[in-house]
Amino acid sequence: MNSLLNQRRCSYLVCGILFLILNGCSPYFHQPTKEKRARLGEDTKLTPSLRTLPPPTEKLVAAVYKFRDQTGQYKPSESGINYSTAVTQGATNILLKALEESGWFVAIERENVSNLLNERKIIRSSMAQFKPENENLPPLLFAGIILEGGIVSYDANIITGGAGLKYFGAGGSAQYRQDRVTVYLRAVATKTGKILKTVYTSKTILSQSVNASLFRFVKFKRLMETETGFTTNEPSQMAVTEAIEKSVQSMIIEGVRDGLWNADAKSGDKLKLALSDYEIEQQDAKATDIYGAKNDISRSRISIMPSVSLLRYSGDYANPVNKFGFGGALNVGITQNWNLQLNVASATLAAKKNFSRDVTISEVNLQYRTLPFQKVNPFIQIGGGIVSTRNSGFFEFKGKKDRMINGGLGLEYALSRTVGLNISGQYNYFIKDEFDSIVSGSVNDSFWRANIGLSIYLGGGYSKKAKSKSL
């Protein structure tokens, strides 16, 4: 008996140690247990591509007076007022650094130009005492363009979520949050005041937390408790830097494309590649919504759907059982969002004792597809039909007929432009309580049905009127 208890204790201890190792070793590699020396600033993922842009024919002299935070946003806080700003107040410095990294601009000092002018006055007064009057300071550079704009929005908690599970005192959880920062940048011609180009970019900021714990009595009055976890927060300064670098890159490429400034003629192939990549990126951005989902699927109007089903009878007989069925459907799109479905299936509805009926299910459903241009397309449906008793063959419509209505929901995942995986569930309710030949209680007979099948698109397009209504 004692050996058995010792084995159990050892197993609990080993499980606890393994739990800590598996769930906690990764974050502990980066624990700040020691002081760290100062280091050079990190590059963002976009910095290398900014440095490798095709060189210009001649660098542009650009002035930046103030590129500031225009949001007025403070950090979100759950414990009261927080007067710390959500984004950096030094965006001008970040923009000037991005201009230098690109190799396209000669940035001139304008943010603190008063300090520069005062210093030049001091130099002139000193030079007047020791040098001839005809020796003057060189003139200041004047800008060909002025870069204006700023950080226009900081949207907190655009996506939040998490999951967790505990079983017998052991479990874990994970939470995440996503914020979003948006930057606008425009180029203004100093001679005419004309706005030459305006671009805007955005960057998401991810925060996530992972925790795991074990709480277990290993013996009488002996409690074992362990926990581990880590939290990572993407620095908002790095997100702002990447968004600003992206706006500078976009400004350069769009300006070359529109003939506002010119790249070096020796970089022809490199320039063509940069322009083509940017064109693809623009098309991709137009097809992507704020949450990162792409509207890049164009479903045809007509499709067929072979499927298998799992049905569960719910009526006046006890102990219902699950039965499999199969069938097919024809889908005809009214608009991109609204779909008309004709469905026929062969199945069996049964209970463990005294009841089993082979049926043919014929129904007409009206579906509303919520995201018709995305890979994952959830839908809801309502409809009605007839359940016919069959004696022989898989599909027979001559037997006893019972009318029913149904409602359900599901989703379709586009495997390609012509094939999709369709999963749905629905509840079917008979109009009269006569399906199982017993009239009892206040609720009519019904059955549940789960379907999985393939949507095979055959073709057919939507009219412009139907498309505009769906959008």
Q: Report the biggest beta sheet as strand number plus sense, adding barrel if it closes.
A: 8 strands, antiparallel, barrel
Shape: elongated
Portion in beta strands: 35-45%
Q: Report mean pLDDT, rounded to a whole number.
A: 85
Using DSSP, what is the number of strands?
Answer: 15
The stretches of 5 or more residues where confidence is low (pLDDT under 50) are 466-471
- Output the structural class: alpha+beta
Compute the CA-based radius of gyration. 34 Å
Number of helices, counting only DSSP H or I runs of 4 residues or more: 7
Report the end-to-end length measured between terminal Cα atoms. 72 Å
Assign the CATH superfamily of the largest domain. ABC-type transport auxiliary lipoprotein component
Report the top-level CATH class of the largest domain. Alpha Beta
